[in-house]
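Bug #2210: token dump truncated for KilA-N domain-containing protein?
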Amino acid sequence: MPKKEVLRVADTDIKYDRTTDFVCLNDIAALQGDPRVHIPNWLRNITTLAFIEEWERSTNPNFNAHQFTLLRGRAGTGAFRVSVSQLTDIGCIGVYSKKGRTGGTYAAIEWAIHFANWLDPRFYLQTLRGYLAMQKSLYGLHATHKRFARELAAENHILPTSSAISALPPEADVLVERRIASVEADIVNLALWGMTAREWRTRFSQPDPKLSMRDFATPEELKTLSSLLVLSQELQQQGYNSEERLDRLTNRANDLINHYCKSSEKQDLLTLTQHKRGWGRFIF
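Reproduced locally. Full output below:
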């Protein structure tokens, strides 16, 4: 008998499409009330739009940044609304609507986790745990740890970026925002791996332009990355400049890697991984 492809959140089955890794947002929203209210309100939220833009930029090679910027520019007014069809019409691939018995609004797991956090922190935690349990059942423990750490790092990736972009004047164009996002990401890249994304692509060219250093990281590196992203946002809000944040994040990365790689087996695995891929800065 095939494994049942559902998430368990708050003792409720949440429909999950294993083929696309998409989750039914209607089922999550129903835990807190009417999906017809919660999903549109979440989609029109400025923080949600910033998250969607970052996710699409990093995932969708055909993302129409100009059209999305025009859409996001109307946010904040009382009449502003965003529908799933609007997002798909301008080329977003992280969400779609499905009709029929198993119909509803389906979104990538990162979107579902973001939505659960917006809806209720309790659902956020339970969604994370439910996803982890389901992945363990489907793929096994080691692969689950890697996938989970990857999703968590992706979820936190937007934190320092959104804070920096929100401080820009309204007239700032998309090229300025893109540059700010790149700088913020590279502060963490330098702290963890000792190189920027551009340096990595130059030294270790990849046939797939969508691949990043995160795709080759160990679970311990991804968990460290997730923590550094949260810390970077906190330091940013406290007024630390880029150089000060890089210094503190680098020291923290050392502490976190040693924390997550307590056993000799994990230390050996990270050492071997760094050797095989040709980059990494940690020595035990």
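Output looks complete on our side. The first strand starts at residue 6 and ends at 9. Marking as cannot-reproduce; reopen if the truncation happens again.
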